[in-house]
Every structure is written in C-alpha cells, then in structure tokens.
Amino acid sequence: MLLQMDSITKKYGEFSANRGIDFSLRAGEVHAIVGENGAGKTTLMRILYGMEQPTSGTIRLNGKEVSFASPLDAIQSGIGMVHQHFMLFPSFTIAENIVIGNEPGAGAVFDRKQAVKTVEELCEKFGMKVDPQAIVSSTAPGVQQRVEILKVLYQGADIIILDEPTGVLTPLEVQELLEAIKQLSKQGKSFILISHKLNEVLDVADRITVLRDGAVTGVVDKHATDAHEISRLMVGRELLELDRKPITPGDKVLEVTDLSLRGTKGKPVLDAVSLSVRAGEIVGVAGISGNGQSELLQLISGLAQPDGGRIAVAGKDVTGKAPRDIRESGLAHIPEDRYVWGANRTATVMDTGLMGHHRRLQKSGLLKLKDIRALVSGWVQKFSIKTGSLETSTQYLSGGNLQKLIVARELEQGTPFLIAAEPTRGVDIGAMETIHGELLKRREEGTGILLVSSELTEILKLSDRVLVMYEGRIAGELSAKEATEEKLGLLMAGGTLQ
Amino acid sequence: MEQLFDLALINSALRVLTPILLAALGGALCSRVGLFNVGLEGFMLLGAFSAVVGNYYFGNVFYAILFAIAIVSIFSLIFAYLSINLRANVIVVGIAMNALAAGLTTFSLRAIFDVKGAFYDNTMVGLPKWNIPVIEDIPVIGPILAGLTPLVYLSFLIAGLMWYYFYRTKSGFRFLAAGENPLAAKSVGIRVARYQYGAVLASGVLCALAGAQLSLGQVTMFTEGMTAGRGFIALVATMLGQSGPLGVTAASLLFGFMDALSIRFQGLALPTHFTQMLPYVVTILAMFFFKDKSFQKDALKQGSSSR
C-alpha cells in the first residue's frame, strides 16, 4: 500500500466530521471518494493534505507513519492537491503558474526562459499539452485544470488529490481530463478523486470508497458495482424512481419569436431564436455553455434587452419590460449562477428567502416578519436545508443548500411559467432527487418549465421536448422519445442529424 | 511662449515630481499586495516633519533622513498591523493615519519648537544640491540636471530597481503573486502577510524620503500641512500607472510637469489660485482619459465567479 489512513476521526466540538475512516491507496490506482455534501470527503482530504489535524487516527505513507502540519509538508511528501476552485494567478503565464514556489534560476533571479523550457519538458513527459507562454485568464477552464495538474506534478507529487475536478468543465473537457488521469495512472501516479458524478467515477476509478455522515459505508471495486449500488450506499436508502406522468400540454406560457441579440464581435449571440413552452410541459435546452443559453435566459427574464424579436409570458407581451413586470406577468426564475443572480451573500437566510416575495409579505410598507419566518422555516424543513438558523449569513451555506433555498423560493411563487437554469448544479444526489421531484410535481400542476442544463442526464430525465442550442441558434429539437445522449451530443457539437 | 517652456521648466519639474514619484512607488507596492494605501499623504507629512526635527537635533542631513525613515516606518507598522492583522478596512485606516499625521505634526510643532504654522531655523542644512562636473557643462542636459538633490536621482533609481525586482527576481514574482491571488499564493507556501508587511514598510520608507525632499529639498523648513495633497496626487499616479514602476514614473512625470507649469504661470500675472488648480485639473482629466479598463474587467470577473 502506498498510502494507508487508519481509523481517522475528526471532531469539531460535539460534531464528528469523520468517524473512524479507513482509506487506502495503491500505487498507480485511481481511488474515488464519493458521498453527499457534508459526508466528510473534504475533511478527510484536508487532513491528508495537512490543512487539518485529525483528532485521532494515523496516516502511513509507504508503511511509515507521517503527520503533516501544513500543506507544505504534504507537498514535500509527494502529495498534491487540485482544489475545487482553481488556485491560479490569472494574469500570469501558464509557465509562471506552474513553477511558482520553486522557480528556476540562479540565486534571487527568476529565469523565465528556463521555466518555459521546464514546463515544455513536463508537458512532453506526461503527455499533457499546454502553451507555457499563454496568459492563464485567456485560457479555457479545461486548460486551467491541466495547469493545476501540471503544477502538482511539477511539485513532484506521486499522489494527486482532485477535488470535484469536473464542476466547471464542458463535456469534451471532462473526457480529456478523464483520459489524462488514466494516462498518468499508467505512468505510476496515484489519484484520489472526490466527486459526486457517478458516471465519471465509474469511468475512471479503480476502487470507490463511499462515505455517509462521516463514516465509510462501502469500499467497492469498479467491476463489481454499478451506479445504483453506489447511490444506495451514498444516500442510505433506495432512490425513488421518478415517473413522468403523461400530460397533455395546455396553452403557451412562454412564446419567444425571432429573438436576436448582437454580439461584440459581429457574430450574433442569439440569432432569430423562436421557441415556446406550454403549460404542463418541461422543455429542456441543451448545449455547451457559451452558445447563447445564458443570454436567452437573461432576455426572457428582463435582465438584458434584446435587439429584435418578441417575448410573451403567459400570453402577455413582455418585450422590453423590467424584470419586476415580467415576474408579475407570471415568471419565476431559478437562476444559473446562484451567487450572482440568486442570492445576496451577506444577507441572512431569511432575507435571501424573502427576495421576490417582499411585495406580497408586507403591510403598509412594513414586512410581516412572522409570516416570512414561518414560510422560510417551512422550506428549510421541507428541503432539509442545512443552516445554523434563519439568521445565518447566506455565504455560510454550502452551494447545495443555498441552491435548495433558491429553488424553494422560486417554486413558492406559484407562477404559470418557471425558468430552471442549472437547478442542480453542485448539489448532491439526495437534494437532486428532491429538486427533480418538485419540478415534476409542478409540471403535473400545469406549470410550464424551461430547463437549461449542462447535464445531459438531467435534461433527458425531465424533459418532454429537448432543444439544442449551438452558436446562438436552435440547432435541433427532439421529443423525449427521440432524444439520446449521442444525438444531443452531435447537435451540441454543431453536427446535424440525418 | 518662450518664457513658458524652457529647460529650467524641466529642471523644476524634476524637483517637484520627486516627492510624488517616491510616494507613488510606495503606493504601487502596497496596491500590488491588495492594500490600497490612502495614508501616503500622512506618511509623507510625518516624513517631512521628522526630517526637520532630525535635522535640527543632529545637524546632519543624512541622520535627519535616517531619523525620518525610522519614525515613518514605525508609523507605517501601525497601518500594517491594523489592516493586515486586525483586518480593519484599509481605506478607513489610511484616512485615520492621515488625520493622525496632520494632528501629530501640528501638535509636535508646538511641543518641540514652540511655534505655530511653520518652523524655520537658519542653522539647519538642506539637502545637498549636486552640480555634477562635466555634465553641468553639457548643453541641454546640463541645465536640466543643474542643482538637483540626490533624492531626485534616487527616486528614479528606485523606480528602476522596483521594475527589476518585480519582473526579474523570484522574490518579486512571489510578491506579485501574493497580491494577485492570496489564497493560491498561500497554497504554494508563500507567506502573504510577510510580503504585505514588507510593502507597507517600504512605502513608509519611500514616503519618508518624499517628505524629506519636501522639507529639506527646495526649502529648509516645515509648514503645517505642507504636503498639500501630494500624497493623493501620488495615489492617482499609482492608479494611472496601474501600479507598475514604469507607468507610475510616467504618471509622476506628467504631474510634476504640470506642477512646474503652474508655478511658471504664476509669473505670467495669472491669478495664483487659478494656476494652482492646474495639477489637480489634470489629475481629474487623467482619471477620465486613462481610466483603467482592466479594473472594470476584474470587477466583472469577480461578480460572475461562482463563489
């Protein structure tokens, strides 16, 4: 065994984040750790990386007991970590980002030419291509992910921890990353992969450790398991089968005609997009991010103004109206980026929940705090949102819990039309199940839902119809029956179905 | 126009730009590590005062400058402790330091010298004014460089050194990294707070030199509030130069030239108060025309980041 962690326990006061966890890693192995948010994955890795000290338990590296007081110790012992949020310097070149902390050059002088050369050799050796002289901020997330891995390799890591590495990547970039992981593990590098995307885990991992509530619920071999078993181990019960009852769609609750938006570089961002959503229907919009989906949503919700075309919500023309008017016409909106559009980070949970309901829950300009409190605490219970109290600042909620709060808030609007943009981004399987269930329930109640998601599985699971956006146009439309991952992937990449 | 633009004007521009350049370089160091130092004005004022005090007691310009550096360094450490260790809002701390410096110098002027408004003593020696042999006889360059204090040369030397430090040394690279993304810098073992302390301390030293040039350079006296907003102009030069040594030098040159020009205008029977506006008007115009678009981009990027 290359690495052996024995009965690791970590207590924060009364709360145990890790309870007697055993974990082992062989040389050249890809070992995935999966579990819901708060299951203890990150704590375990922070302990391994020297960012936290375990309350009890031992770590052995090549059979020798070690203890890391800081990440620097871990790095020196050949453990590297790629954080969920990139630790890069955007205005520096790729080479500079990789060599930082151990720069080449004699004495105090930093030899940048040598840095470029070293990085080129590193790329060569590990078969990962990057342009060492490119500025990081001008590169795609997939490249930045590669830079992070190269940085860890440059530091001499043999064990590489990847924390949710595919969160910001496009499907193609995810493929490239998984390929790179496989290549590197063949060259003897070992990986610990933290993820909750089971298809990726099953693709690349050799073994999978499942955590729930700070304890190990199973260590399984890839060949002896399937997604079903893993999710059962993660959630601790059987997942409910979602069923989509057949429903005859009603009137159009959204009608978009020839919507256009000019871009900055001559190319239109949206090019005469027309689509409609009927009551009781979920219309999925698939596409690689950056093909106009975000802009489409911003135009529909009134956050930006179109250069041409018409938008009607619930039969009313709302083109050029302010977001408030559009919402009053019958729109609720689970926004794409929960931190930018969905919440005020410094406001309390209660205030974030109140947003959009504040005109209703007031009496002569004074907020009806009692009613608001009852409403928000109702959501907290129903969606099991983990928060200290209603007065907790929103920024302390984990991404998944904040997402649940926003979903609850927007569903409460009870509007005939709902935009659900990336409704389950970053949430765990249990929460995803809840959110999907709620969306389907709203569909049965006759709400029309426009679902935009970069997760094809989500689109396929929920949608009655699927539209694919490519370069600002609707590249194709498929019914739920026709739609498959392959067909959608083809359209998303700009191909056509023959 | 001949009496308006001549070589002596450039000479005078070099004299007046020196305090601005020195302070602006200090401001650039601070802003590169994420501490926008609004306290330059106060640092500089205290530097000017303590240089005069040192000069009075030691009777030696060199010791006077060392004394000023020591005093302003202590003062800047207060700034550093409040904003780095106690995480106080750096703008508020800067304003407080300015107010403190203004009060402290006025009070000390009374307490030490028992005078109000200004202190002058003819036993005090000012900074030496160099007339370099050979060079002073060269046409054009000679008159431009005539009678400049060593601090003028030093300020340009420091700008050059700073460029070398930032873009050629490992330590400078890490310094920039610490400012660009402190969290990422910590993750590779860079001690961010140490670089921040270094930057604030260096800005203190630079402002002490700037103050000394004010109170011992052109004249050899201290008057209350004699920095007259130069610290803020330096702050603008920092922003205008995008906190790069070369940009800051260029911006300071612009402001120094305008300052010199406004002094020159006074000789042309234009109302003094009007001509004194010139540097400040240019400051405002400069903000309009050279507004740094990358700031907006950064703000946008921050707004759209996922966390």
Automatic annotation (TrEMBL), chain A:
Keywords per UniProt: ATP-binding, Nucleotide-binding, Repeat, Sugar transport, Transport
SUPFAM superfamilies assigned to the protein according to its UniProt record, in alphabetical order: P-loop containing nucleoside triphosphate hydrolases (SSF52540)
Protein's UniProt keywords contain Iron-sulfur: no
Superkingdom per UniProt: Bacteria
SMART domains: AAA
Molecular functions (GO terms): ATP binding
Domain ABC transporter: 3-238, 254-496
Transmembrane segments: none
A Pfam family the protein falls into: ABC_tran
PANTHER family: CARBOHYDRATE TRANSPORT ATP-BINDING PROTEIN MG119-RELATED, GALACTOFURANOSE TRANSPORTER ATP-BINDING PROTEIN YTFR
The protein's name in its UniProt record: Simple sugar transport system ATP-binding protein
Organism placement in taxonomy: Bacteria, Bacillati, Bacillota, Bacilli, Bacillales
Automatic annotation (TrEMBL), chain B:
Localisation per UniProt entry: Cell membrane
Transmembrane stretches, start-end: 12-31, 64-84, 91-113, 140-166, 195-212, 232-256, 268-290
Top-level taxonomic group: Bacteria
Keyword Zinc-finger: no
Pfam families in the record: BPD_transp_2
UniProt entry keywords in alphabetical sequence: Cell membrane, Membrane, Sugar transport, Transmembrane, Transmembrane helix, Transport
CDD domains, A to Z: TM_PBP1_transp_TpRbsC_like
UniProt membrane topology term: Multi-pass membrane protein
Keyword Membrane applies: yes
Database matches in InterPro entries: ABC_transp_permease
Name by which UniProt lists this protein: Simple sugar transport system permease protein
Organism: Paenibacillus lactis
